[in-house]
Predict the 3D structure of the following.
Amino acid sequence: MNEAREQSLATIRRGLKRGPLDGTRRVELETRLAHPLRHLIPTRAQGSHSEQVAMWIRMAEYALATVDQVARPNDAPAAVAAFLARENLPTAIVMAPDAELAALPWESQSLLHIERRAARDGDQVSVTTAFAGIAETGTLMLCSGPDSPTTLNFLPDTHIVLLPTAWIVGSYEDGWDLLRATGEAMPRTINYITGPSRSGDIEQTMQLGAHGPLRLHIVLISA
Amino acid sequence: MQVTTQAFQRNAGAALHNPALQKALKNIKIGFVRKRAAAVAKLPEFEALREAGRELKNHVLDHLDFYLEQFETKVIESGGQVHWAQDAAEANQIVLEICQSVNARRVTKGKSMISEEIGLNDFLEAHGIRPVETDLGEYIIQLRHEHPSHIIAPAVHLNREQVADAFQAHHAPYGFTERREEPRALMDEARQVLRQQFLQAEVGITGANFCIAETGTTVIVTNEGNGDLTQILPKVHIALASIEKVVPTFEDVSLLLRLLARSATGQELSVYTTFSTGPRRAEDADGPEQFHVVLLDNGRSGMLGGEFQDMLRCIRCAACLNHCPVYGAIGGHAYGWVYPGPMGSVLTPQLIGIEVAGPLPNASTFCGRCEDVCPVHIPLPKMMRHWREQEFARHLIPMTTRFGLGLWAFVARNPKLYRLATNLGSWLLRRLAGGKGRIRSLPLARGWTAWRDLPVPQGRTFQQQWATRRENQS
């Protein structure tokens, strides 16, 4: 439908009373795209790192996620097992095939049954990491890739995320800067996740677990 | 969908006399209005962000051609495809051909107002493809063969009993034979039924809240996660977007995201904000193999440079609906087409013609709350006035109204005549009231007295009082 394309562009330019952009204006806009400018960033997103961690926890809980904290990465498997036991949840876990996750001492938790793959229908519990945490709204930022399939974030009833506090940043913009700094191509899917799935479509009464996970649990790792 | 905007007055009358609807509409004030106020109060920078949001959208509209071309280039670079559509028919055809190219029988759908605008579901069904809405509210109204009554809460006009009826009528084949009325139970039922649909669909269709030019990325915002299951499980993901949804960069989207959820549901941020760029990568374990973006114009390009350009700033948060006394009294269906409330009263005449949508810009008290809460400062009352002026100029107003307005204008331009008429009028009304303070029934004014009493003019007219006041001062 190239005709539709040309027609829309021509009508836009007629309305704006100019032809296609060229010269300095075009260069300015290209520069704006290549070097994105930040708009106003809320003060709450600009505290010290410890303030950001505290804000992230507060906001994630406000969004009805649950948060546990452990001192070291090696403590995370026990925290996951304890959470599942406390909530009376199944111990079969489908885990992101991520090298850092695999390096943790999961064998110490003999009750856990772990498969490392994308999620399928019927999976009850998933465990993933996140790319970053965003303090201003208690948001997780997850990027798809071979070691982090997106289905893990949506199909199981319970989603557990292991997040080092060092990966918490203040604002959305800080998250984008982190992603650009990796120098890698834009992932297929980036998910901002703020609390468990919900719907208020029946009489404006909020219910958790509409289509995505009923529970979102984060294990924060301090060191 | 069938347009009933012309029957607005009759629709509104029926809505006011519909007890189930009136009960459901009360939820809006508790659900949306209070939550928005609380969320705004928690962010001191909110007003400054609104200003920035307006400036950003104005910048985009001033360079819309450039950003659309950039967006297209980047989608293609990341392995996706862009399809431009002038109107609903072209957009529907594009979607159909994509579905047919993979022999799709079933498509799942995330919530998309563009899909409603082009009437996609009816079109696909007519060609043997079954569209399944997966947003809970959209799913409920699809079962009831209705259209959304609200742009972000499509089933806000319904009560739980009506949802229970719909599920009972349709869910027996899935093993649900018992009637359930608890919202929790109803949602669990829908979750199980729709999970199977997600897994069986060959194509997933979503809308797009934003299209990012920097990287060719589309963005959807949901709370349920249905949009995500819609786009990651099937082989093909189609995102439907209108041309004004493009924004330059992730920084620009971040600004608008701070405004959107707070204005819409009063959340700090919606549960899921998803950024999609191209199809799945070679090494990915999941995700769609094809990524298509349909860019719909449908008359929007023609709004640039005109008196309705500002409407293209709209980010579809629905704050103007939630705060509108007219919408709150009659709900969305009375508006007679896809977009209700103040934003609909401005946009609908543009999209389907002022000839048929004429009643909508008149369905306003001009209280101005819509503009007060708009996250991008769209001057909605001013634009409704533009439409009224156009109606008058194009002789679309009924003869009696034109005659009345003409008569009033004539009298108002002749001070002596005006004084005479008002004095005579108030004398006559006092006589008719027979000493009481109000009139219950008045010939020629039943449109007023059928609904409320008419207060009788008290004391002297404004002009008389003004004259006395000036005499006393001099």
Notes: The CA atoms of residues 91 and 112 of chain A lie 5 Å apart. The longest helix of chain A spans residues 2-16. Chain A touches chain B through 81 residues (CB under 8 Å). Chain A has two domains: 1-37, 47-221.
